[in-house]
Records
---
Amino acid sequence: MDEPKYKRVLLKISGEALMGDGEFGIDPYVLKGISHQINRVVSMGVQVAIVVGGGNIWRGSTAEAQGMDRSTADYAGMLATVINALALQDALEKQGLTIRTQTAIPMQSLAEHYIRRRAIRHLEKGRVVIFAAGTGNPYMTTDTAAALRAVDIDAEILLMAKNNVDGVYDSDPNTNKDAKRYERLGYIEALNKRLQVMDSTALTLCMDNQLPVLVFNLQAPQSIEKVVTGEDVGTLVSN
């Protein structure tokens, strides 16, 4: 692979991406593949932080639609992200990497509490840092958590890893064979067209802090490696 384009990145992995072809839970083969790619990226000298979702285990919006209190449902979703973070931590450690998991909600027996300066220090020492439990607040998605953490740790780019979707389209490519994929997008254009990049709060946070966002297909071969070396894949959202 070529030399890396970025020194520090934040990788957002959706919970759905961990399911593979399943309908629920974590596919161990997918987890192993992701951890192998991250190991390759770290070996290039790239500092990697990760935010992981929880949609493969729990979706707060679904629980709310079934009558659960929204805040309670969202807190349950935060716990789902911790489960995924611990599974990813274990897979990465099996690759020989040193991992630190930090949670937005204190869980002293499981992980460190999120402290910005400590997270940056871990990255500077070559450790992979996994951020779990979202922002620690209900009504906030893990997309928003990813944008917030990326800005907070001075990441150069936010990498949005999607499940079998290779970028941002003008319509759903799964239902419209003529859907057009964007190679480049401006923040305002993505917001005005309500494109499925990330939720509007997260995208606005990236825009306000001029943080570029790259949307790509996690399942594509060597996808993370190609992204960090600057290959022309996925959709770049920036100024």
---
Amino acid sequence: MSRNRKSSRRVSYDEDRYTGRRETDTYVYGNTVRKLEPERVWEEQEEAPARKPHHEVRKNRDKAHYMNAGYVMFLAAALCAAAIILVNYVQLQAELTNLTKSVATSESTLNRMKIANDEEYNRILSSIDLEEIKRIAITELGMVYAQEGQIIEYENESGDYMRQVTENN
């Protein structure tokens, strides 16, 4: 004979240990054995007596489940504040993206203008004939090269320009 851990009564071999029914009470069709009732292991275990929670614990649980009007208003205000902050954040992100695109467009325009300016400057420099300018200056305008004593050099340590107050001969 076997002994059940949950109860102290003896169970015979032909008696189901969980249901207490005899196997001879039912007929099984087919070649497999089916369990007619699920195991009731959990139901047979003795439940520990439920302890009543302490008064403070019960009070805290009641407070946790209870939502008063002030708490609901606080949550609504917090939700509105979070929504406003998020909307402003998204708007700032969109504005930043637009400004970045605008800066990129302005930079590309500036680069194109610099390239066009450099090309025009090089075209003008290459079209200038210095020998022709010298010929026109000497023959048509009567310009001459400076003599040895005509060139006066000044040293200016104070600034970028100089004024001539008196005429030197």
